[in-house]
Amino acid sequence: MRRDAGRLDWAAVAALAASVTTVVAIVTAVMIFSQARQDAQHARFNATLESLWRLVDQWNSADMTTARSGAATALLADQPNHDVDDVLDFFDEISFLLSRGALDEEMVWYEFYRPMANYWFASQDHVRQVQRNDPTTWEQIGRTVTRLVAIEARRRSRTSDDLVPSRAQIREFLTAEIGNAECEEETEARRMPL
Q1: Cα angle vertex 73, ends 62, 129, to 5°?
Q2: DSSP letter string over 164-179?
């Protein structure tokens, strides 16, 4: 930095100061970007969680509990009705929100895997009949159930085929839905809370 004895090279000092300022600016920009990204992820997680809680509240509401009981009764009698449609419409909404990224797949699995899988497999004949007139009706639920079964299989270290509910399991589930009671399988398979 000294050119001659006792003289400072001001151009070198200015270049060093500019370099230090550039490095500080880059580090600051990276820190701001990282914080903004964390804030956005946190906000997205909170929005997803809030949406999930609203869906859980809706699922457990008096109107939906009545519809679930009516749907279970109708499916056990092999006479699907509007209550079955209401339950499938609810799961279709969840499937749509999941496909659009508004819900987290693991959270949906945690809260809705069991009822969604049981109602879906219990109403396959009805779904096929309705889809003859409109193939788009409830089309996303099937994809969602497949994804949720895969998560369940991975979590339980089993194959997806092992986890498709049997007729007996579906009947037990639907019977519990009529009385709004828990099935034995559900109490055995309690998961840790979020």
Answers
A1: 110
A2: SPPHHHHHHHHHHHHH
State the pLDDT at residue 186. Answer: 43
Mean pLDDT by 10 residues, the chain (194 residues): 68 85 84 76 76 94 96 97 98 96 94 97 96 94 94 90 90 92 41 44
Token output for 175:
């019977």
Residue 8 carries which DSSP code?
B
Q: Provide the 10 A C-beta neighbour count for residue 56.
A: 13
The whole model's pTM is what?
A: 0.74
Q: Where are the domains of the chain?
A: 1-46, 60-188
pLDDT computed for residue 30 by the predictor: 81
The DSSP secondary-structure symbol of 7 reads -
- Helices 105-122 and 62-76: crossing angle in degrees, nearest 10, is 40
Indicate if the alpha-carbon torsion angle 187, 192, 193, 194 is positive or negative. Answer: negative
User: Under 8 Å CB-to-CB from 40, ≥6 apart: which residues?
Assistant: none
Angle, alpha carbons 142-83-190 (nearest 5°)? 60
Q: Report pLDDT for 161.
A: 82
Residues 6+ apart with CB under 8 A from 109: 148, 151, 152
